[in-house]
Specification:
The longest helix is centred in the C-terminal third of the chain and has 38 residues. The protein has about 190 residues and is α+β, with helices and mostly antiparallel strands. A hairpin with a 4-residue loop joins strand 5 and strand 6. The strands form 2 sheets. A 4-stranded antiparallel sheet has the order 3-4-6-5, with helices on one face. A two-stranded antiparallel sheet has the order 1-2. The chain contains 4 helices and 6 strands. It is elongated, with a radius of gyration of 22 Å.
Length: about 190
């Protein structure tokens, strides 16, 4: 295998890995009726004039399966954190008691569960699109190598190898989506 082709294959593999990591990260943000600090992972808080991740200005944890508690390192941040959670438009209502912010996670209705399952399937499909795009680039690299004098038989074997890799990543994606669906549909 030529160096360029090896490099293209490695870059393709990394691209597919990153698509799976992104899918896993996005799936953790979909709430399944259980409280999880990761639900607030994307929230930025204005801290001394610069946006700072919520977990860097406070302790974020769960007190039980339906409650997230946030204890800021500075009490003056309570209002700012509360406002940031409202602005994030997550459908969560923070309650400020002067020292902590508590967020009660309501139980999901059947209709809301079905909407979340559709959202999860959409995220899975987005991951597959990313994998297909990487596959396309890998196939182009193989075809370019064959045109440049690389053996056609070896090129065909590489194409078959790429297809096996893509199928494996599709299976991983389906598995992640299926696990999240079960989590959402479990009462």
């Amino acid at each position: 295998m030529t160096e360029e082709l090896e490099m293209a294959m490695e870059i393709g593999q990394e691209g597919m890995d990153s698509a799976m990591q992104h899918l896993a990260a996005e799936l953790t943000k979909v709430r399944a009726g259980k409280a999880s600090p990761s639900m607030l992972s994307g929230i930025m808080v204005e801290y001394y004039g610069s946006p700072t991740p919520l977990n860097q200005v406070s302790n974020v944890g769960t007190t039980d399966s339906r409650t997230i508690s946030i204890q800021p390192f500075e009490k003056s941040l309570l209002g700012t954190i509360e406002r940031s959670i409202f602005e994030a438009n997550l459908g969560l209502t923070p309650m400020n008691d002067g020292e902590f912010i508590r967020i009660n996670i309501p139980a999901l209705t059947e209709e809301r569960r079905k909407i979340l399952v559709k959202q999860v399937k959409g995220l899975g499909e987005d991951a597959k699109v990313s994998i297909r795009n990487v596959r396309h680039k890998m196939m182009d690299a193989i075809k370019a190598a064959v045109k440049a004098g690389y053996s056609e038989d070896a090129g065909k074997r590489n194409e078959d190898e790429v297809e096996k890799i893509v199928k494996a990543y599709y299976a991983k994606s389906d598995e992640l989506v299926e696990v999240k669906e079960k989590d959402i549909m479990t009462i």
